[in-house]
Amino acid sequence: MKAVVPNPERIDRLFSTAEARLERWYKLVSAAQAWGVKPDKAGRAAVETALAELRPAESFFGYPGLRLLRTVEDEIAQGDGADVARLVRRIYNALMSNSYRADAADWETSDDAADGPGMLRLPTRLDSGETRRPYFELLIVSPAPPARWPAITQDLRRLRRPEDQFIYESVVVGSFEDALLASLFNGGIEAVVIYDGFPFASHHEAPILHELLVTQLGVQGDGVAVEEQGTPLARALKRVRPELDVYLLSRRDVAAVAGDPAVARHIRRVFYGIEEPLEVHLSVIEGVAERFETPYFDNLKRYAQRPIGTFHALPVARGKSIFKSNWIRDMGEFYGPTLFLAESSATTGGLDSLLEPTGTIKRAQDMAARAFGCDRVFFVTNGTSTSNKMVEQAVLAPGDIAIVDRNCHKSHHYGMVMAGAQPYYVEAYPMTAYSMYGGVPLRSLKQALLGLKAAGRLDHVRLVTLTNCTFDGHVYNTRRVMEELLAIKPDLIFLWDEAWFGFARFSPFLRPRTAMGAAADIEAWLETTAAAEAFAAQAKTLGSDLDPGDARVLDARLVPDPAKVRLRVYQTNSTHKSMSSLRQGSMVLVRDVDFNHVEAQFKEAVFTHASTSPNLQIIATLDVARRQMELEGYELVTRSIQLALDIRRAVNGHPVISKYFRMLDASEMIPAEYRPSGFTDFVRAGLTWGDAVKAMREDEFFLDPTRLTLVCGTAGFDGTQFKGLLASKYEIQLNKTSRNSVLFQTNINNTLSDVAHLIKVLAEIACEIDEQLIHGTEGERAAFKARVKALMADVPDLPNFTRFHDSFRDNPAGNTIEGDIRAGFYAAYNEEGCEYIPLGSEEIDKRLMSGPELVSASFVIPYPPGFPIMVPGQVLDTGTIGFMRKLDVKEIHGFNASRGLKLLKPSALGRDKTIPAPGARSGAGGAKGGRHA
Fold first, then answer.
1. Can you tell me the mean pLDDT for 520-527?
2. Which pTM value belongs to this model?
3. Which of these, 212, 587, 727, 740, is most buried using a 10 Å CB contact count?
């Protein structure tokens, strides 16, 4: 009979391996303690049941391992509940604290001293007093019978040497499916050794895995010979966790196996049988060491330990100006000496130059490219605002058209100004009830491109820039967006602003919706015969050159021509927002087959925007953040997703909290038309992983599970007010607010204690409101009801972009809406050409009715919602003015209430601009002779 992997109905349990595992051990500890107090048959049965429940999943972990688990069984057989309780409590505590990774005593089979009988020291030398060596687990996939697995593990232990950089323990499984289960459940696995000849099917009942294999990985075991499962398994493992090192031990023709291109892509090294076990051991250590290396950070540590004489312009370097000071020594005491020892304005001594990296920074960036699945990475030390402007300056020239999400970060709008590009603003779908926007529908993007094609301006279009995920968690179907738009313009460049989504690379479920994950999938697909066949079928129906006047084009699922596609994808991520980097640490990720055409421009953009005095500590933490995510990113991201789901379930399921607060789910954040799968909520009863994976794969938009929009208007708080209350009274910080909501997000820094604190605070606030309403007067209850109505029902309509004034359009009579934002921006530099009109004045209403048109002279950005509702050169309408008048937020950039709206005078509006023809520069990138890899 097959063992059953604990598989509760709740979908979120796949993300809660560590938490659920600890819960099972805690249940065993409780049962053992109860049996120790009352040693009867019922108590023993409860212990045996608890142990049986945790045994199947424990087969995927190195600790406590078979030896300790058998010791638990032996203690139960002896019938002493107190001894069982002591042993399982020790194991539970080791799992809770992760002390087993460094303390040999946790691996002992008894509570005796180190030299007592029955003692097991599994990893060796952990108690030697030497500097702690990182611990990881090695997955071994073997066709050997389970009775042989302890011997396999022991053979590898004997190969350990004191000089090894790391300590590892082995986990042995016997099938394709069990290997994938282990890689999913055990985030501590860093490498996999595959022995050819194992079967496909798991001996566990694992319906979650079966759904995942078929729907997410496209893997089925039928038709593959047992001796040939190794390469497909390596491919599947790299699809789930691309950071893993995979080694193949084969008894087939190893020369032929090693020469297989699929093996080269997915397997680090091939060995013949088991003839070189020490080489396997050394290879495993070396592979992990390559990810552990941080070239820049390692060198900076060495630099800080050297006696340096500094005669350059940085007095804080070495810290002498601080530690010898009579007045600022407290600064040195606060930060400690290391920070100042690691400071310099020099680029010698291995410190390298961020502007022209050739040494440790270059190596660190190359390693980041490997980790994030792209061709190149560039470190940025002044935030993703700068990263965005660098890319836009590099790929855009005056007169180019860029299709831009109107609700994107302000850096993109300013990037258009600096590049002289003409933004064609497209609108995200509105979420009026919460004063926020979602994502830009694919249909709107296709309409924009097809409209430009119909107007004869498609050749001017250079770039599409979108935010993925949005501030509020809307994740695009990046692959579908790029494929369909490339079908209309095959050399289109994509800039995906993933400031909030950098962590998603390290989740197998979210990775396909990242820019680089989707680009890799598109690149692989374009090489297949299926891609050519799909395009040929489309050409028969719609023609090889899509007709923008054909209504079917807008409705069809378009596929690009593999022979013409130039895959050009850029991604920016705020590393500091979701990984262990200091503030302003950012990266530009590049996967552009024509980067050689824009590399010179890119360097100029770097020179333009990057400081010549970058912060060395930010560079170092970008290096370290990459190391951490390659080695434990999967485990950390999985945990952060689980914590978010815990919060969602706790808030929406709490009898008092849910009366006044609730976390919005996908059905409230994403209209049904963009969710054909019918997915509504991660924690809905009866939801399966098949449902969730289908939604992730097919839906136009998907909700990032780590982003939690809490409605607070139903509690009588506007977003800004509630944010202030949480910060001032409860020491809880959050980022974004809207008219009636606040946004929480979990990340790799959060713990269950953080979750408990948040839930306690929300419960306390909810109970206080409850008490006030119960014991308050009718007038107080009426005031509360009116306040809630004002926040939740009396919400202003969200304004759309109108158009640029005709003086900022190349063809005012045309149907397309792109405009010269740069000319509008600099027109405001002429003070005599500007005027200020109070927002509430009758003059505004008269001009809206009868003219002359109101034309914005500046960006106006209210917080919230945090994007420009006015841009330079934009014609204002009643919707925009009405929204401004209803705003009750304190922070509005670009608007001085005492002076009024800053507008361009009608007399100042003229046409005086010279724009070079598009494509009149190197790297215009035609669609001929396509190359996609």
1. 96
2. 0.92
3. 587
